[in-house]
Model the fold of this input.
Amino acid sequence: MNRVYNFSAGPSMLPEEVLKIARDEMLDWHGSGMSVMEMSHRSKWFEEIIKKAEADLRELMNIPSNYKVLFLQGGAHMQFSMVPLNLMKKGKADYVNTGVWSKKAISEARKYGKVNVIASSEESNFTCIPELDPKTFSRNADYFYITTNNTIYGTRFTKLPDTGNVPLVADMSSNILSEVIDVSKFGLIFAGAQKNMGPAGVVIVIIRDDLITDTNPEVPTMLQYKIHAENGSMYNTPPCFSIYMCGLVFEWLKKHGGISRIQKINEEKAAILYDFLDNSELFKGTVEKKDRSLMNVPFVTGDKELDAKFVKEAAEKGLVNLKGHRSVGGMRASIYNAMPVEGVKALVAFMKEFEAENK
Ligand SMILES: *Cc1c(COP(=O)(O)O)cnc(C)c1O
Done:
C-alpha cells in the first residue's frame, strides 16, 4: 500500500485512522453481523450511529439547543435552492458575491425572489473578500447570505458581517470544523461533507428553530426543512454510510482535541505554506493576505508550462491533485483537517527543490 498526500479540493483526504476503523468494521459493524451499508436505516444500530454523529457534532461545534442538525442529500447545490424556497418569506435577500459558489446560489435564489448583491469581488477575479458596508444591507431582508470559505480562490471571511435581526446564512462547505465559530451568530449553516467531514453524499444543515416554518405547499416535500426536522432526517432513507463516516470523523476530531486544537494545526499548516510563498522567487500566492484561507491555498509561477511541469513532477513524488481550478489556473493545495503537517512540509520541500531547478 502506498498512500499519497492528496491535495484535492473535494472529495478530499480522510484521516487514515478513520479509514482503518471503517475497514475493520466493514463486514460486521459492532457485532450486528452486517455492514453499515446493509443495515435498515430504521434499525436500532443505525439509530445509534446517527444519534452519536449528531451529538458529537453538537459537542464539537458547541451548537445551541435551539438549533436542529439535519443530514440531507443533494449536496451544497441543493441548499442553493432550499435556502430561498424555505427562508424567502418576504421575497428578498442580501447576498455577497465571492465566487462561483455564491454566484450559483444567487442565480438559484433569483428564481424565487429579489436578490440584492450587496458586494462583490468579481472585478478582482475574487482574490479578496469585498468590504461590506452595513449601510447597504437591506433592513427587511429574509436573510443575508455568505460563503465563508471560497474553495476555488482560497479566500475566507475573517470577520462576520453584523446583520442585526436578519438571519445570517452561510455556505461552510469547505471550512466547517476547521476553526472555532460561534454558531449562535448564524441563522443557518450548511456544508457538503466531502471537503472536511466525510465522503460525498450527505450535506449537513444547522438551522435555528424559528427558521423552520411551513413553506408554500407547492415546495416539493423533500425540499422542506420542516419535514426533515420533524422526521429526524429520516423522512426517507438517508445517506447512511456517509453519515456513519462523518460520525467517525467527528470521533477522530474529538479524540484529537476538538476544533480549537485542529484550528492550531490548520494555522500552522497554512503558515508553513504561506511563509514559503511570501519568500519564494518563483511561486506566488494569488490572494490578498488579509483574506487568505486556511483550507485552500492557490499559487502560480506565472508561467503556464512551468505550472503544468510542477503539477506533473509533484504527482510523481506522491503529492497529487495540485492542479488549480480552471477559473484561477496554476496550482491549489487544499489542506483540510485530514492533511497532516508532514504533507504540507513535503509539499514545501518539493517546491524548494523545484524552484532551485527551474528559476
Ligand atoms: C464544493 C462546494 C460546493 C458544491 O458542493 P456539492 O456538494 O458538489 O453541491 C458548494 N459550495 C462550496 C463552498 C464548495 O466548496
